Amino acid sequence: MNRSWSFISYFKYSSSSTDSNNILKVGNALKQVRVFTPSDITGYSQLTHDSNPLHYDLQCAKDAGFTSVPVPGMLVASLFPKIIASHFPGAIYVKQTLEFRSPVFVGDEIVSEVEATSIRQMKEKYMVKFVTTCFKDGEIVVIGGEAIAILPTLGIKE
């Protein structure tokens, strides 16, 4: 089992929040910390058949202007649906936009965050829009974007 990731039970609440802390509200953020390994890149490449040498050949990466072999951006971005699905089992991912801003390298500690920006009830489910961001070194945005998911409940599973 890969032990290079962990969840942080962290929620950012608006100052007017008086409801129970385990119910998703606009302004709440869920975070996860992850450090990618060479075996993560190998597994991703095998699963997706992405054979871009940029992600496993140091000389190719250097020729492209990188200091090391970068982690595939889509592998890093996969943290967003993982956060949502792990806290809201049965969630349906509807949309994701991504902007890759800075490379991620093996060994970088990445903090991935999804923050609820709007919640709309649809019969017995909820359509939630999230701002999605991955940071390294605590402040450098490596991926930014937005996601929309349909959640079966607003109850946050720990």
UniProtKB/TrEMBL annotation:
Query: Which InterPro entries does the UniProt entry name for this protein?
Result: HotDog_dom_sf (IPR029069), MaoC-like_dom (IPR002539), UPF0336/Enoyl-CoA_hydratase (IPR050965)
Taxonomic superkingdom: Eukaryota
- Domain spans labelled MaoC-like: 34-125
- The scientific name of the source species is Penstemon smallii
One Pfam match, given by its short name, reads MaoC_dehydratas
Q: What is the lineage of its organism?
A: Eukaryota, Viridiplantae, Streptophyta, Embryophyta, Tracheophyta
Gene Ontology molecular-function annotations = hydro-lyase activity
Its name, as the record gives it, is MaoC-like domain-containing protein
